[in-house]
Amino acid sequence: MVKERARILVVGGGYVGMYTALRLQRRLKQELGRGEAEITVVTPDPYMTYQPFLPEAAAGSISPRHVVVPLRRVLSECRIIIGEATAIDHAKRTATLTTLATEEEGTGTEQLSYDELVLAPGSVSRTLPIPGLAEHAIGFKTVEEAIGLRNHVLEQMDIASSTRDPEIRDAALTFVFVGGGYAGVEALGELEDMARYAARYYHNVRPEDMKWILVEASDRILPEVGEDMGRYTVTELRRRNIDVRLHTRLESCADRVAVLSDGSRFPTRTVVWTAGVKPHPILAAGDLPLNARGRLKCTPELTIDGTTHAWAAGDAAAVPDVTAADPDAECAPNAQHAVRQAKVLGDNIVHTLRGEPLETYAHKYAGSVASLGFHKGVAQVYGRKLKGYPAWFMHRVYHLSRVPTFNRKARVLAEWTLSGLFKREIVSLGSLEHPRAEFELAAGGKHPHNPGDDTKGSS
Fold first, then answer.
1. Is the pLDDT of residue 458 over 60?
2. What is the rounded distance in angstroms from the CA atom of residue 274 to the CA atom of residue 178?
3. Is 33 in the same domain as 104?
4. Which CATH number characterizes residue 347's domain?
5. Which of 111, 115, 236, 276 has the fewest CB within 10 Å, making it most exposed?
6. In contact, 14 and 48? CB cutoff 8 Å
7. Beta 250-252 vs 257-260: how paired, if at all?
8. Which of 87-91, 142-146, 419-423, 443-447 has the lowest mean pLDDT?
């Protein structure tokens, strides 16, 4: 029994934040009903994004609405605050928040007190001071970026189809992806597949007219699926005329020219940056212990090391891997661990409130799957290596089983079934980024839509 009102604050609405709150909501159902506990979730978006489906959303295989889970529906017993935690003072058990209301009111920030803290803000894109990157590149961490990129690629094909200038056409049909991890390889594979299909509907754009370039600073791509599968992926991408450049860095993309460390120069209107992530800034704006990489030092029980009543998991946390032979090994910051950690974290908070012993998080890494486009993929699961259609099928089955809620599972499965029966959608809805554009023009204003803008086109 919880003897007094327990105020639980969850910072972040991603994998760990949503699944932890969901676990607490189920385990503390009676306490919540009696008013003995309350769960508050602070998140910048009112939904959780299932990121493994972003490449398929970009390719048009899944509706963007179905790769996100509405938090208010799933976490019906929790208080959802749309905003961001900007500082944590765990000594005083307070968090400093900015919300949509504080911005409207102009009141600055507000303080929120708590008894138990779950820090799960995730990570943010890790960028470098590369000339032109901030002005011209687009990331691939959000559903808005994924759909924006899809619209942008189709728009570039429209530009190439209608221009008579060979330089503009060449730049429009050159697509540079930086980063050979999951996000970069899957986004490139799916979008190249989509563009190749779309080209059949353009009278003067052929698949071989397009240049797709993958830039990776290390000597391999997709390290998660193993060295052999990584090499196979390079071979498979090159077979599709995708230019894979290892040991290569992007040095500049100013003036819409991608300059690589090997001396190559590519005029391009599309630079996609997926070169890693870094811990969320909130971690440094608090009084909790961090490791050398800026992640929270955690125990195998998912408490933050050296503190009480503070918990963390996922991208923000350095959690010891108790299943590894190396005593210094840490769990990889991926969804496979995050979902399982959230379950243990939620249970351990309940154990703490009820005076019960804590559980240890232990999960032996099962392997990884990656999609390279329609009916193409690679996988290494429990030591077994798969490629081509079997790996692609396993990728779909695994992620369908992991996407939250039966509602989303059913909708995604229905969309996959329909996409197998009918032709792909190849429409670009880039104008959704500027819904007032036509009205502003009609009212005598200046049309804000610029067809040459490298980063516009989100829906």
1. no
2. 6
3. yes
4. 3.50.50.60
5. 111
6. yes
7. antiparallel
8. 443-447
